Amino acid sequence: MAFIMEHPSKSALNVMKGIEQPGQINADALKKLRAGKRSGNSVQELIDGIFSGNRTLLSKAITLVESSLPAHQEQAQEVIAACLKQTRSPLSMTNYQLPITNYQLPMTNDKVRNSSIRVGITGVPGVGKSTFIEALGTSLTAKGHKLAVLAIDPSSSRSKGSILGDKTRMEELSVDPNAFIRPSPAAGSLGGVARKTRETIFLCEAAGFDVIFIETVGVGQSETTVHSMVDFFLLLMLAGAGDELQGIKRGIIEMADAIVINKADGDNLNKAKAARVEYANALHLFPPPDSGWTPVTDICSARSKLGIDHVWDIILEHRESTTNSGYFQKRRMEQNRQALYETIEEGLQHHFFSRKEIAHLMAKSEQDILAGLVNPYKAAQELLEQYFKKI
Ligand code: GDP
Description:
Layout: H1 2-6, H2 27-34, E1 37-38, E2 41-42, H3 43-51, H4 55-66, H5 70-86, H6 107-114, E3 117-123, H7 129-142, E4 147-152, H8 156-159, E5 179-182, H9 190-206, E6 211-217, H10 222-227, E7 232-238, H11 243-246, H12 250-255, E8 258-262, H13 269-284, E9 296-299, H14 308-325, H15 327-354, H16 356-370, H17 376-390
Parallel strand pairs: 3-6, 3-7, 4-5, 4-6, 7-8, 8-9
Antiparallel strand pairs: 1-2
The structure holds guanosine-5'-diphosphate.
């Protein structure tokens, strides 16, 4: 706090905010949108801005991606398509064609995009995720990496808050010119938020961010979602609390490429060492993962920075091992396949629920179901029949 008071310009208040989904739009704004403009920036300006690493324009483009307005979505898709063309991620390496564009990219940026690494970081609230990200993140940016921190926070639509919205978090990173922090999109279903996060990753990579951290609270379904979009999945744990206490499900432990016991400092150091041994033993009981990588256990202190760089070494080792085995590329391809399904599902759902006649029939079916007049399966079938007749 004292730090913020002394250096108002260095406060964490400039963490970029997610957007509230606008319900309506006025006619003037709509005209502007149809003319291909939003907030004064055309799609081309946004694309150029992203490719030149302009964080303000990157931020605006992400806001466009997060918007649910059809006009914004159309523009967002143009931006994403341009970014994907330019993002020479290993997923497209097999028959990669040089994009025919006018963009002259500095070689360093191009290299960066070739070798991005996406890391999911999870753990219960209070385990030290933001302290850890601050510690590892500042170490990475000091080494010349460009880091984007994104969040998936399933609670944000309910609480209107965000795990990255807390202004006291990541004070150094939030003013670091080589870091970009973006809170979770404020609204939408987990599936919708996840798709937007996936697209945001592509935008960040096209803007030259070579390390992407995706943070999530380790208490539910969002881990599976994060796991489906990262190369490495890190689970942060505390010593002296059983799995049940930490609310971590077996499935999450199974997904982890590394389990790191945080707060290994002071009186807690020995407990952390013991917990590490326990987790290492527990991991032996799980079947070996498809990646061929044996999940690693370690300890660290995000506060004192002990062991933080070692966690990065583990991530790099994993990358080398999975790249050599071909798993790294295979996993990204598989994630792309999954994105195809997710996008189609979401599109169909959106189309279904946005039809006025369906909304009307839905309201009636809901009433009938609540009154016990019809069973939900029959009602659903009738609604679908109506829908298919009308489209
Ligand atoms: P998050 O909710 O998982 O993001 O956790 P935070 O990073 O906000 O940390 C929660 C609390 O634990 C804060 O008071 C931190 O200062 C503290 N904390 C985080 N890492 C460490 C650590 O390595 N050692 C100790 N002793 N405290 C830590």
